[in-house]
Amino acid sequence: MVNNASTLICFIPFLPLIAFAINIFFGKQLGEKSAWVTLACSTCSFVLAMLVIRPVLSGAVIQVNFDWIVFGSGALQFGFLADPLAAIMLFVVTCIGSLIVLYSIGYMHGDPRFSRFFAYLGLFLFSMLGLVLSTNLVQIYIFWELVGVCSYFLIGFWFEKDSAANAGKKAFITNRIGDVGFFIGIALLFYGAGTVNFTDLTHEYFHHHHQAILGIAGLFLFCGAIGKSAQFPLHVWLPDAMEGPTPVSALIHAATMVAAGVYLVARLFPLYEAFPHSASVVAVIGTTTACMGAFIALSANDIKKVLAYSTISQLGYMIAAIGIGAMSAGMFHLMTHAFFKALLFLGAGSVIHGTGTQDMREMGGLFKAMPKTAWTFLMATLAISGIPPFAGFWSKDEILTHAFLHHHPVVFGLLLAAAFLTAFYMFRLVFMTFFGKTRGHFHAHESPAVMTVPLMILAFFAIAAGFPGSPFMHHWFQAFVLPGEAVKANFGLMMLSSVVALSAIGCAYYCYIVKPEMPARITQAIKPLYQASLNKLWFDEIYGATVVRLFQWLAGTLFLFDQKIVDGAVNGSARVGLWISKIKNWIDQYIVDGAVNLVGAITRITSSILRLFQTGVIHHYLLVMFIGILMILYGITK
User: What are the residue boundaries of the NADH:quinone oxidoreductase/Mrp antiporter transmembrane domain, all occurrences included (predicted)?
Assistant: First the structure.
């Protein structure tokens, strides 16, 4: 079985790449049939992934390596690795990716670039699958950059809109900032450890090799995760990524791009565990991001922007979990979040498809008009709010329990506060969208089956995905990810987190259903806080006034330097060269050519004179000879 899995693992990432190639070259001929090519390839990848995961569940590690770059006595390898971490990501990416491809068939129907969209989806899935199966950091970096390029293509897919084009550039540039740190981290890690292979970077290795440079490398590597997983302070690209088609938002926020950063930190968990100071930085950034994202989401009125800041907050939860040592809990939350967040985004897409607006202030009363969308969306909201027995309850509670039991009171308190805010703003969204009176001028309608069937499947996982890590299954998930890890259920903390979530839901119900005038009164009472949330803590304005302006000044300075100094030197050299060439031309024309022409003129004159004596008459020559002989004789006798 392991041998078969070693063969099959090589095909998993390349099937979506085949779909990309087919749709790029034959998309015009295929038309909307191109979607089925991508769906078939992604589904086959899912089936193969399940076959590869099966032996991993039994404790096997599947690894296939090829020597890529040989240097000295070593070699940099290219290959595929399927261990518990990779198995989780394989399941998440292939399952959710296939459902999003299916949903996109209905959502993108009629788009003039339909086949190109599905080509990009195939390339995106290939990049992410290549990333999660990578055997070393260099290989991850290559696929990491491919994921970034794909996000640029898809976020700016409707590039005729300036906002979409700018959002794509913003995502690309912001991620490059983090990627510079990532690249430096890889170099430092290789310098300090002599390897970048994951199978070598184990707990035992870092226990015996504790150089300070490795801790510094961990911080630089974390920069890559900060950018990719939209952590403070590089989170600003993710809300603008909503300019892409909604299925892209679901793919980026649930199964692919943002999950890559968390996966990277989890992969390097032995490094952070060996260097507590680096792990503390990870925990602080994650906790800050969790609270910040939840705070900003409170005032957002665009349904996709609420979900975007929700994603930022939940990613902060995962990063904070790994930072405090709860790696298995962080990965557990990554898996559960992937399913209910994909459901939330696809549900939001269904709402937008049915109403034609993204502004929640123009919605309301959609429960009757869109029952399938409403029920599945409600289930996902209960999951992210942490209501038992939905998936988010078990994973969120696992993080809170670890923070409490391992003496991280500040992290515990802030994450619990973020959990309260999460339940509040998510049910604010539900009540504004699906309940109350209709506030917009539209005739809402339910989405077609090709869009609602994926919602129902994801709704099932919004419940079922949490049970593998629950006490009912003896925390099987945690034992699978980290064998031997002791996990204990704390029912008191479960009760506390449930009460906190239910209290938040009650507050949202009172403010938006019982007393709909209450939000306006509250915002007036806490106007500075409301303005801070509404303006996203002014991050865009601060970056615009500092970083952007600095780079604009730097770009302008470099332009002037290039124009005045570099181009000036080049143009000056050209002018000197022109002057020298003119002098050279004069010398060549009047001295060199003059001398040559003078010799020629003298030769012509001499030849003209001598030609007078060359008459061609024989007796003239005899006369000259006779005169010459006489002159010789005269000279001799004298």
Answer: 134-422
